[in-house]
Amino acid sequence: MINHVCEYDMNLFRISILFAGLFAMGLISFQHVTAEVWIPDNEFGGYFDSNGAYTVIGAVKNTQNIAIVPTITINIKDNGSMISDSYTLSIVNAAKDIPFKIKIPQIESKNAILEKPDVSFVSAKHNATDIQVIYDTTLVKHADGHTSGFIINNDTVTAYGVKVYAVIYGKNGKFLDTGKSVEIITELKPGEKTKFTMYPDPLLASKISYYSCFALGEDPTLTLIAQKGGDRVSFTYVTAANLGNAKFDDSQNSLSFTARNPWPQITYVNFMIPLQDDNQKFSVSLNGNPVDALQSKDPDGYWHVAFNLPYKSTSMVLISGFVQQGQPLLPKINLGSSNGSNELQNSLSVGNFRNYLLVIIPTVAVIVSVIIWKKRTD
User: Fold this and answer.
1) What residues does 227 pair with on adjacent strands?
2) Cα separations (Å) of 115 from 46, 51, 178?
3) Cα–Cα distance between 342 and 347 in angstroms, integer?
4) Could you report the per-residue pLDDT of 290-303, keeping only the tens digit for each?
5) Are 138 and 144 in contact (CB under 8 A)?
């Protein structure tokens, strides 16, 4: 009888070890998969800037072998409430980073807690334009902490809406801040060079050791013209489909248009709408049927409303949720903040899989242990 019990104990011990190993392997596998697009903990943080505005800074790393368009979700606990916002960033080439700096002025408490961000992304249809920062004696960090230098378009096509970003480091390589060029570079032709300058927050200027700079160029966005409040206004979007016949309903604050997707695969439409209200909620329908839409905002103050179009289809699209305002929507040409991507359902939400893993494996281990225990008692 003692040997029988010992045998069951040994079996239970072996199975527990087995599931512990599976659990560890699952975590290692998870880290390998989700580390493809991520924000390092040591390059993410928040602070109150010199103007008193709460500022979230960080850098998204794309270690995939394809270009992507990332969206980050920032969660902040402030005075017992949770503030959560999503921001779509520019296209990021394979093995590249994109810094970001987002101001959230509604945060007032010095005890606000910035939680770990979530990252999702869609794969881009092509790479961002090949623009490089020239690392030579012309790249200078000045005595007051700001930097200046030159960028060059090494691509064969003209780049539009060019921006220079930087991760800013202090002594011993400590992550301090992120920055963006102050110039408005509407276009940069192949082989063309232009100067950029970047200024840090005055609170951090004396602590800066060096800048790690990145240059990004957007593809031209498209515009859809409609009558709104008696004026002709432009709605900015990116898509591989054909859009037309736009009409704005002033009484319903909605935009309707025809979307033709001639391709044999699902494609997407991404509208960029000037932010009129932080609480705006857009909805989308195709041929009168509601469809899922992803809504986020970018650091430049634009809502992104993205949705899929069926393959080889012609759809009547209705976007609702615009806010009635005295000022018409202004056109935004060649300065889009997000770019081409494949189907939205390919997006990867970092973090969800790990939660499932942490629950499922221990649960299975418990069930197996209970079964063995019942056999021992029978």
Assistant:
1) 232
2) 10, 23, 19
3) 9
4) 999 999 988 878 89
5) no
